[in-house]
Amino acid sequence: MLSKLPHVGTSIFTVMSQLAAQHQAINLSQGFPNFPVDPRLRDSLSRWAHADQHQYAPMSGYPPLLARLAQLTQDSYGRTVDATTEVLVTAGATEGLFATIQALVHPGEEVVILDPSYDSYETPIVLCQGIPVRIPMTADFLPDWERIGNTITAKTRMLIINNPHNPSGRVWSKSDFEQLEQVMALHPQLLVLSDEVYEYITFEQKHISIHHYPRLWDRVITVSSFGKSFHITGWKVGYVIAADPLMQEIKKVHQFLVFCVNSVAQAALNDYMDFVDVQELGAFYQKKRDYFRNLMADTRFELLPCEGSYFQLASYRSISKENDLEFTKRLVTEFGVATVPLSPFYKENTQNQCIRFCFAKEEATLAQAVERLRKI
Fold this sequence. Notes:
The protein has helices at residues 12-22, 39-49, 63-77, 92-104, 122-127, 145-151, 174-186, 226-229, 244-257, 263-272, 281-296, 324-335, 363-373, and strands at residues 26-27, 87-90, 110-115, 131-136, 156-162, 191-195, 220-225, 238-242, 302-303, 311-315, 337-338, 340-341, 354-358. The protein is of the alpha/beta class. The chain folds into 2 domains: 12-30 and 279-373, Aspartate Aminotransferase, domain 1 (Alpha-Beta Complex), CATH 3.90.1150; 39-272, Type I PLP-dependent aspartate aminotransferase-like (Major domain) (Aspartate Aminotransferase, domain 2, 3-Layer(aba) Sandwich). Strands 2-8-7-6-5-3-4 form a 7-stranded mixed sheet, with helices on both faces. Helix 7 links the parallel strand 5 and strand 6 (191-195). Helix 2 crosses helix 10 (263-272). 44% of the residues are buried. Pfam families: Aminotran_1_2 (PF00155). Keywords: Aminotransferase, Pyridoxal phosphate, Transferase. Belongs to the class-I pyridoxal-phosphate-dependent aminotransferase family.
């Protein structure tokens, strides 16, 4: 059988999590928390599970939740969006990314991806016969605007950006967005798909969103995640915001991909937003970041800057000359800690002897993991 995705195998996240389970290792690889969900959200889910909320939700989303998301966008970024035409609840951020690319990228059109990059970007481009063009970021994991400017042409349909950035934890500056505006002014056909799933998890520097730039709104699609914000990755609920003409096309794909999203989960999330303040997430995760970094100071790893997300990059140059896949596998088998190598985030599997830790874990888990890492 001729494969439509001959280059695609099992994701590195699945590989490392399976390896962790096989060796009973502490799993700091895959990006999911291991602490309990807020009881108020759990109780809300239980109430709606016992209510009459088990049939299809409207295709775009549960209307009260759509209204809340429009208000959240206004409160967070000062952008007014129409809840009925410019907001779409999706089956996780991944479905939002997939539906957007399928709807807006045509065969032969190029899509620029900045490496290292999340592995869900390229596949939907290939499936719609677009052309993924992957270019490296700077050595410190920030956008290389000279290279971006030289890469985008009249054939480029879309630029995918990710801020705060997975896997590096870096965040964009005001200067980065000013340069993005300049690039878009030069290329009127260009759309931007802005992956902002970690938008509320930033630390010393407050998150700057593409929502802050009104001149770009008509050409931007943003993707957000309840899973990341509320520690419920298994619920697979996210949302997309885009101007009405773009959203009409995205909805055409969404309705035939999943039609609608879990109705009980949407109702529970709508109620929960009465109680939760997303602006407090940064402080919550900063404590975890600082705790983990302080523990790691006694190891041989060199920690790189972490300004957002719940990921911490670390260099192992002073420990080993192994490639990162070999090194991370040895961490599991010999030391009982699972992490993620950085090379799979690059088209060419670039080796820079860095690995990624997820610190969205209970303190006891982090302490136990670092105790093992100190033995390296």
